[in-house]
């Protein structure tokens, strides 16, 4: 009897729990949200301007080759709102859009130069304070307005927000000139010992915009989105730009080179000059602080492995002297890039290379004195760069085609 009563009570409790418990109390239907693929941040001197690149799923198939309808339709729509704060601007979107903005699939945030120079601390606060935004979103800077970048279409990519993300990932993987900088990494660097950070540039190249699908009616387009320089931030404000050559030098010093390339001069036995193109397969950098006689200096040891991709000099690559010359020229090129980047950082009095963290760990007592004036200390600290360049492969042929051609003519 007692077992039956217990079983009956258990059933009653389960039924009651099923009645009072709702399965999807906070559900959001797909037809209630506007999926945002890219966000833009601008500053007009008084207000923040936030732009949204919203995906139109029904129009994507027409752009990528689907049938039906009256022709291709734009897969995205861009609009902007304004407010005293970034969240204030976002809240104004409810008065313009019939759907709630959904930022979980946002791929990039593009920041205009005026907003970058004002400071990015408010943007970082928004991303870390709100659960709807992901800290893995890539940050890009543009010299104009971010809205113009968001309005551009891209070749081979229907949604340009996703395309911008793929461009920066491809650049980082294959050339390492510019890094991919997620929001969380930007926050970590700004709050680090050096209080500095970098953000890659994206801009509209060409004379006209590609904000209309009519631009793709021919085999060439008037302009395109393109990666450029490196924006330099001190504390949370942008203070200048670094060229692509300087950016690659900074990548070596930051130990962030995955793959890259270097073009070195060459010369054959008859004095004819040309160039060799070497692909960098591996790179490892160690920056070592040194303190002698009260003077702080740094030593950068770089190990590089490469393979020859192209040669237009009449060279016999079997000869050890030719390989050694190639390696030596590669070392000279990389050292020059690193020294140029270091000099640029010292001119701006901003440490982009992680030197502050390494100095803090090695000289904790002296760091208490240096930390308050690190920018000045860094600006007076010389760099000694040493590169060990090793050619792992010379390609499928140990002789250049020009060498074989010249030998046949003789």
TrEMBL record:
In this chain the Spore germination GerAC-like C-terminal domain maps to 230-395
What is the topology of this protein in the membrane according to its UniProt annotation? Lipid-anchor
Q: Which family does it belong to?
A: Belongs to the GerABKC lipoprotein family.
- Residue ranges of the Spore germination protein N-terminal domain? 27-202
Chief subcellular site? membrane
Entry keywords, A to Z = Germination, Lipoprotein, Membrane, Palmitate, Signal
Pfam families from the UniProt entry: Spore_GerAC, Spore_GerAC_N
Q: Where in the cell is it found?
A: Membrane
Q: What is this protein called?
A: Germination protein
Q: Which organism is it from?
A: Paenibacillus glycanilyticus
From the broadest rank down, the organism's phylogenetic lineage runs:
Bacteria, Bacillati, Bacillota, Bacilli, Bacillales
Matching PROSITE patterns: PROKAR_LIPOPROTEIN
């Amino acid at each position: 009897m007692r077992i039956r009563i217990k079983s009956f009570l258990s059933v009653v409790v389960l039924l009651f729990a099923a009645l009072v418990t709702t399965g999807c109390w906070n559900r959001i239907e797909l037809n209630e949200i506007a999926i945002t693929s890219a966000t833009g941040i601008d500053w007009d001197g008084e207000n923040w301007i936030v732009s949204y690149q919203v995906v139109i799923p029904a129009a994507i198939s027409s752009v990528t080759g689907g049938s039906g309808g009256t022709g291709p339709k734009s897969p995205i729509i861009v609009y902007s709102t304004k407010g005293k704060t970034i969240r204030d601007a976002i809240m104004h979107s409810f008065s313009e859009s019939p759907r709630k903005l959904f930022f979980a699939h946002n791929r990039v945030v593009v920041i205009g130069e005026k907003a970058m120079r004002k400071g990015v601390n408010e943007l970082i606060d928004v991303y870390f304070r709100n659960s709807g935004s992901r800290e893995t979103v890539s940050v890009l800077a543009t010299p104009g307005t971010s809205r113009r970048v968001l309005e551009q279409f891209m070749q081979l990519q229907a949604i340009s927000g996703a395309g911008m993300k793929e461009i920066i990932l491809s650049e980082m993987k294959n050339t390492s000139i510019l890094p991919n900088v997620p929001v969380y990494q930007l926050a970590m660097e700004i709050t680090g010992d050096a209080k500095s950070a970098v953000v890659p540039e994206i801009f509209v190249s060409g004379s006209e915009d590609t904000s209309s699908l009519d631009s793709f009616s021919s085999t060439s387009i008037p302009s395109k989105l393109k990666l450029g320089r490196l924006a330099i931030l001190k504390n949370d404000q942008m203070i200048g730009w670094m060229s692509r050559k300087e950016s690659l030098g900074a990548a070596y010093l930051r130990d962030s080179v995955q793959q890259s390339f270097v073009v070195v001069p060459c010369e054959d036995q008859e004095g004819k000059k040309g160039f060799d193109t070497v692909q960098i397969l591996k790179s490892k950098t160690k920056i070592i602080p040194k303190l002698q006689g009260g003077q702080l200096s740094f030593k950068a040891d770089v190990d590089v492995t490469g393979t020859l991709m192209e040669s237009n000099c009449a060279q016999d690559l079997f000869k050890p002297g030719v390989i050694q010359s190639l390696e030596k020229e590669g070392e000279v090129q990389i050292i020059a890039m690193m020294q140029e980047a270091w000099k640029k950082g010292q001119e701006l009095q901003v440490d982009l290379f992680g030197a502050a963290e390494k100095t803090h760990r090695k000289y904790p007592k002296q760091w208490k004195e240096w930390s308050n004036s690190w920018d000045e200390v860094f600006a007076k600290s010389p760099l000694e760069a040493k590169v060990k360049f090793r050619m792992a492969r010379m390609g499928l042929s140990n002789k250049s085609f020009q060498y074989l051609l010249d030998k046949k003519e003789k």
